[in-house]
């Protein structure tokens, strides 16, 4: 019998009627998260750079809205929150799923442009969105923020310095702001996935010259289930952290990577102790 693959099913009754803003909601994890929140009765606004892709997702939501925004442009943060609040009548949950993988991050990962793009999108933009959203999130003393981080904040790829370091900084942002705002009734946490079957593999095909199947086969070796995580398997932990089921959880980072963050034991202890 094959292993059950999880999904963000309709189990979080506390999310019904909640007003949720999800950045990067037009594809991948953001899209899966938007659909999962909607399936649990939430009102959802998603952001993205292309209206047609946003429309394709909002058509799948029970009650959904969209804001066209390029959040690599920090000035879009204030407008994004204002428009979302206006359309939904308030804001209870913010999910920072927006990400970027620019040429500079890939090819100039130790240069100023690479660091600039990575830190803007993964640190400055989430910080600004949280600050703009805070008056609304704290209004009912039951707000939540979930930042989509990465296992790269914990385990590093030496050829991805700008991204790795920006994600580590994002995790510290999560902890710092959780100390600042939990007392105001807003919990702030993050989810840190390993490899997920999203459009990132299309980028990796371009960067590595490998086929998508070759990259999938390699990614499967990087975790203990020997499979690739689906976007829906990330949406589930995001919903949990945003729901009342996580009412006493704030300032944590949840790795979702099938034990790949755990240092492996040595298969044969005699190898380690040989010669001692």
From TrEMBL:
Pfam family membership, one: adh_short_C2
Top-level taxon of the source organism: Eukaryota
CDD domains, sorted: SDR_c
Signal peptide: none
PANTHER family tied to this protein: EG:BACR7A4.14 PROTEIN-RELATED, ZGC:101858
Name listed for the protein in its UniProt record: Uncharacterized protein
Organism, as annotated: Coccomyxa viridis
